[in-house]
Structures are given as C-alpha cells and as structure tokens.
Design goal:
CATH superfamily of the largest domain: Response regulator
Number of domains: 2
CATH architecture of the largest domain: 3-Layer(aba) Sandwich
Number of strands: 10
Shape: elongated
Order of helices and strands: HEHEEHEHEHEHEHEHEEH
InterPro entries: Peripla_BP_I, SBP_2_dom
Keywords: Signal, Sugar transport, Transport
Largest sheet: 4 strands, parallel
Protein name: ABC-type sugar transporter substrate-binding protein
Number of helices: 9
CATH class of the largest domain: Alpha Beta
CATH topology of the largest domain: Rossmann fold
Subcellular location: Cell envelope
Pfam families: Peripla_BP_4
Low-confidence stretches: 248-252
C-alpha cells in the first residue's frame, strides 16, 4: 500500500482517499502525505487517535452502534425470553471487530437472562463462519442466538445451522453490512442485518477530498449512521442502495 501511495504522490495528485489495510499503517501514509502537502482522507477504518494529526478528515461509521443495534434487535425479538448467544468475530484487533462486539456486550449486560456462551474469530469469511458455527453449535446445542460482526460470517452461520438440522425458528441470526447476498437471505435464515452505507462513505470522502484540495476547511470527523434492516424492509433498502449508487456515480462525474 505504501508503494501505491508514493506512486500517487509522485503523480502530483491533489488529495488522497485511503481505506487502510489496518490502523497501524495510517501514520506511515500520513507522514508521506504531510511531507508532500497532500491532504489525506481516511475512509471506513478509523485511525488511532494519536494518528489523526496526519489526517485531514475521516469518513466512517461509529462501529459500536452497529453492535448495539444487533443486540437491541435480539432483545426486542426475544421479548423477555432467556437465550444463549454466540458471536462470530472479524479479524482480532481490528477496530470494527472490537467495537461491534463491545456494542453487543454493552446491551446484553443489561439483560442477565441472555448469556454469551461462545465467541470465536471467523475472519469476515463465509466458509470460516460456517466451519466455526458448525463446531460451536455441535458443542452447544442450546445456542439460540448468533451475532456476527459481518454478513458473510452470518451467511456461513445460517448455512451451518441448516446443515446441522436447525430450523429457522430455532435461531436468531443477525449480521452487519446489508450486502446483496445478505438481503437475499433475509427472512430465509437471516433475521436482520445492519446497513453500512459504503456508497455514502464513498460520496462523502470524495467530497472531503475535493474541498481539501481547494483549500477549504473540512470537518475532522464525518459519521455515517447505521440502519437496522429486517425482512419487511428488504425491498426498500435494496431500492435505497441502488439509488445511492446511481447518485454516487453521477456525483463523481462532477469532480
């Protein structure tokens, strides 16, 4: 990634938009951008606080909110019934993995009848999510709630559950991202997901880069809200995503 950044800087770009592979690389990118006097816009992966000095603007979502939304959906769906839950984790140590899981547990801490009995890394991957879920459900047949840090692992979880003979009514499964694949599974094993607007993050990061290149003052943080998506909302959210992507393509044509 650093080689790509150097190539962009050598090409005399007016601004940089970067989605880092992880938080640790932001400082190295930022130092190169600062030396070249090129404004750096970071999207999705939130930099460590001490590295924000190298960043002109950050565009993303407050990851803890998505985890809270998942757990609140579970609480409302259970309506006071006890439950045993498992959590599928993204790559350990990433901001999204840490904060989404923290959000899950923050809400569940208020409801002692819900116990998290297992959590395991599945690296954002569907196949890994399926493997981990199959193992955990085999060891804990009384699990009836599965929370996943993203949709791909959630899809893996529901496929594993079906393979083991679980019915849709036996499990509540929730993901994050509202990917097209996840939307197709809503109401068919996936009970809810949380929409993270990649199109809005892209649009706003392009806007911040454009303004920064012109020397305009821009906000240090730009928060894009998450939205809970349930089966009854599937069609509306699909239309919304398509319209935002269309608007984004037209917006980018203007730059």
């Amino acid at each position: 990634m650093l080689n790509d950044i150097e190539n962009f800087i050598d090409s005399k770009v007016d601004a940089l938009i970067v989605m880092p592979t992880d938080q640790k690389i932001v400082k190295a990118i930022g130092l190169k951008a600062k030396k070249a006097k090129v404004p750096l816009i970071v999207v999705t992966v939130k930099p460590n606080e001490e590295d924000m000095q190298y960043v002109a603007s950050y565009v993303g979502s407050e990851e803890i909110k998505s985890g809270e939304m998942q757990s609140e959906f579970i609480i409302n769906s259970l309506n006071g019934k006890p439950a045993k839950a498992m959590i599928l984790l993204g790559p350990l140590g990433l901001e999204a993995q840490i904060k989404r899981t923290e959000g899950n547990k923050k809400i569940f801490a208020q409801y002692p009848e819900i116990k998290v009995v297992a959590e395991q890394e599945a690296k954002w991957d569907r196949s890994k999510g399926m493997e981990v879920t199959e193992n955990l459900l085999s060891a804990h047949r009384d699990i009836n709630v599965i929370l996943s840090n993203n949709d791909e692992m959630a899809i893996g979880a529901l496929l594993a559950a079906k393979k083991l003979g679980f019915k849709d009514k036996d499990l509540l499964i929730v993901g994050i991202d509202a990917t097209p694949d996840a939307l197709s599974y809503l109401g068919k094993g996936l009970d809810a997901t949380v929409y993270q607007s990649a199109s809005e993050q892209g649009r706003l990061s392009a806007e911040m880069a454009y303004k920064a290149a012109l020397g305009e003052k821009i906000p240090k943080y730009n928060w894009i809200p998450f939205e809970l998506v349930t089966p009854d909302m599937k069609e509306n959210i699909s239309i919304n995503i398509r319209s935002k992507l269309t608007a984004l393509s037209h917006h980018n044509d203007d730059f």
